[in-house]
Amino acid sequence: MKKIIIIILCCLVVVFCATFFSTFFRKETEIEVNYSQLTYVALGDSITYGKDGITGEKMNSPYPELVAEKLNLKSIKNYGIKGSTLAVNDNGYEPMSIRYNEMENADIVSVLGGVNDFFRSVPLGTLGDTKNTTVYGALNVLASGLKKKYTNSFIFFMTPFQVVNRTTNSVGYSVQDVAIAIKEVCSAYKIPVLDLYSYGNFEFEAKTNSLSDKVHPSQEFFEKYTAPQIAQFIKDNYKK
């Protein structure tokens, strides 16, 4: 009888310990984020600005605003400028690798650029470039600068969408090469990347919608695809 009681007590102790430690570690690892207290800044070009690929006008809700709505963020500041490049040189325009310094503080920081560097035939450069006169160099300057400026923020980059009916530019590289450069540089700085080139689905709209300009998504596309994708990416990767 004593043995049975001892066995039962041991089992109860094991169950209690298992429950306690399971609950403890779950609380430690599954910290719920209160997004309503978080601020967001989005750096980019006309796609971030919100030029509608069908109307050509500024859309009512660019993707940063849609993302903020989906996550119920405290605020959003859109730093998208039409024609903006990553790099600084004779072909560059409103370079992101400079104007990131002007952005206000935020808890979440996103970067979407590179397609204008492609269109303007900014030199691609190499991974070791440290000056922002090439795509790689600008990415290095931007990634390191953002890490220093936003030491406690969640920073992520996005690759450009696939651009339909465009192969290589006048200096011999493609939009895919820009996407690869972004992933390589961000890997070096341990910055997460949302690969819109491979998984953004924009090539479907660009090929099937006769009114699309083949570069800028429509308002409907942002609402259906891009904003939910970015919001989910933030949920999956946000770490404070």
Summary?
By secondary structure, the protein is α/β, with parallel strands linked by helices.
Spell out the blueprint of helices and strands.
Layout: H1 2-29, E1 39-44, H2 46-49, H3 63-71, E2 75-80, H4 96-99, E3 108-112, H5 115-119, H6 135-149, E4 154-158, H7 175-188, E5 193-194, H8 196-199, H9 202-208, H10 219-237
Parallel strand pairs: 1-2, 1-3, 3-4, 4-5
Would you kindly provide a written description of the structure presented here, covering whatever features stand out?
The chain is an alpha/beta fold. The protein has two domains: 1-31; 35-237, SGNH hydrolase (Rossmann fold, 3-Layer(aba) Sandwich). Helices cover 45% and strands 10% of the residues. The protein has helices spanning 2-29, 46-49, 63-71, 96-99, 115-119, 135-149, 175-188, 196-199, 202-208, 219-237; strands spanning 39-44, 75-80, 108-112, 154-158, 193-194. Strands 2-1-3-4-5 form a five-stranded parallel sheet. Helix 6 runs parallel beside helix 7 (175-188). The longest helix has 28 residues, at 2-29. It starts with a helix and ends with a helix.
Total beta strand runs: 5
* Gyration radius, in Å: 23 Å
Strand order of the largest sheet: 2-1-3-4-5
The H/E string reads HEHHEHEHHEHEHHH
Estimated structural class: alpha/beta
* Average pLDDT score: 87
What is the CATH third-level topology name of the largest domain? Answer: Rossmann fold
Helix content: 40-55%
Question: How much of the sequence is in beta strands?
Answer: 5-15%
